[in-house]
Design goal:
With 294 residues, this protein is α/β, with parallel strands linked by helices. The protein has two domains: 161 residues, no CATH class; 56 residues, no CATH class. 47% of the residues lie in helices and 12% in strands. The chain has eleven helices and six strands. It has a six-stranded mixed sheet with strand order 1-2-3-4-6-5, sandwiched between helices. Strand 3, helix 3 and strand 4 form a beta-alpha-beta unit. Helix 5 crosses helix 6, helix 8 runs antiparallel to helix 9 and helix 9 packs antiparallel against helix 10. It is globular, with a radius of gyration of 21 Å. The N terminus is likely disordered.
């Protein structure tokens, strides 16, 4: 497999669109259904070195130094988001908390975390659902928990479907989120009958014609087309290459054992950042086996 599938951190259209305190305030107000005061301080603290292919955290910011929000734009449903965000939030806190104060006796208050995923993929998804870190925990049968059954560690991710026809109230409160939803929706619609590059170009033209995200699209021009093309095709490319390797593995498997051949595909795919759910679909290996190959 070609290592070019991996990419260094690049901006997504979502992260560029929602890159100012004013628009972030609008976005968060829309999701929460409340008005964030104009004097509330919004600080962006997105980590720029989260180099997971198609798994880049799009937005991380604090509001009035009270809330840490991690918002991810996701085109595919990924059940590993809570684990990824657990690792990510630790790094965010490292950047915003004074380490020296953690060794003093007095309690050091830290921003309260909130985890949000905005989903706009093609596969069906409810308007709202929660993903929990505890779902990923291995079976602890026989081990004693507290009497109330509360786990010592949990992380809850709120997933909102922002496709057209879903969460109308949220979209109605944010002009920019509505525009983004329409843009991605048109790309998905056009891509049914057109090559992805034409679908992206036509979707941008549609939005400009109907006054959707006009200022943003004019300001960033062809950059938007290039970003959208890369965002949408990166996972498709990864899946194609994984399938090609799997086909080779079927042939090689005649002599070395098909299971081991698929394990090699999984190892190589993991090293190049292919999402685990794609590896699982291509190889047929269970999640635990794939995790053990890291």
């Amino acid at each position: 497999m070609n290592s070019n599938v991996n990419r260094k951190h690049k901006n997504s259209v979502f992260s560029v669109l929602f890159s100012t305190p004013e628009i972030l305030r609008e976005l968060y107000s829309a999701i929460e259904g409340i008005d964030i005061p104009q004097d509330a301080i919004v600080n962006i603290n997105t980590l720029s070195d989260a180099l997971y292919m198609n798994q880049i955290n799009d937005l991380s910011f604090t509001i009035d130094d009270r809330i840490v929000v991690l918002a991810e734009h996701q085109s595919t449903l990924n059940e590993n988001v809570p684990v990824r965000l657990l690792m990510y939030i630790g790094r965010v806190y490292e950047n915003i908390v004074n380490r020296e104060k953690l060794y003093q006796k007095k309690l050091e208050k830290i921003p309260t975390p909130e985890f949000i995923v905005l989903y706009n993929g093609k596969k069906p998804c409810p308007d709202f659902q929660e993903l929990r870190l505890s779902t990923a925990f291995k079976d602890i049968c026989g081990l004693k928990l507290s009497e109330d059954g509360v786990l010592p560690l949990e992380l809850v991710v709120q997933v909102y479907n922002i496709n057209h026809g879903h969460n109308k109230e949220i979209l109605g409160r944010s002009k920019n989120l509505t525009g983004y939803s329409i843009l991605i929706g048109k790309i998905n619609e056009y891509s049914e009958n057109l090559p992805i590059e034409e679908a992206v170009t036509n979707a941008v033209k549609y939005c400009l014609e109907y006054g959707i995200l006009t200022e943003f699209l004019k300001r960033h021009g062809s950059e938007v087309v290039n970003m959208l093309f890369e965002e949408i095709t990166i996972e498709e490319i990864a899946e194609i290459r994984a399938r090609e390797a799997a086909e080779e593995a079927r042939t090689e498997g005649l002599s070395q054992g098909l299971d081991e051949a698929y394990r090699n595909v999984a190892r190589n795919s993991l090293s190049e950042g292919v999402p685990i759910e794609i590896i699982q679909k291509i190889t047929g290996l269970d999640m635990e086996t794939i995790q053990s190959l890291k």
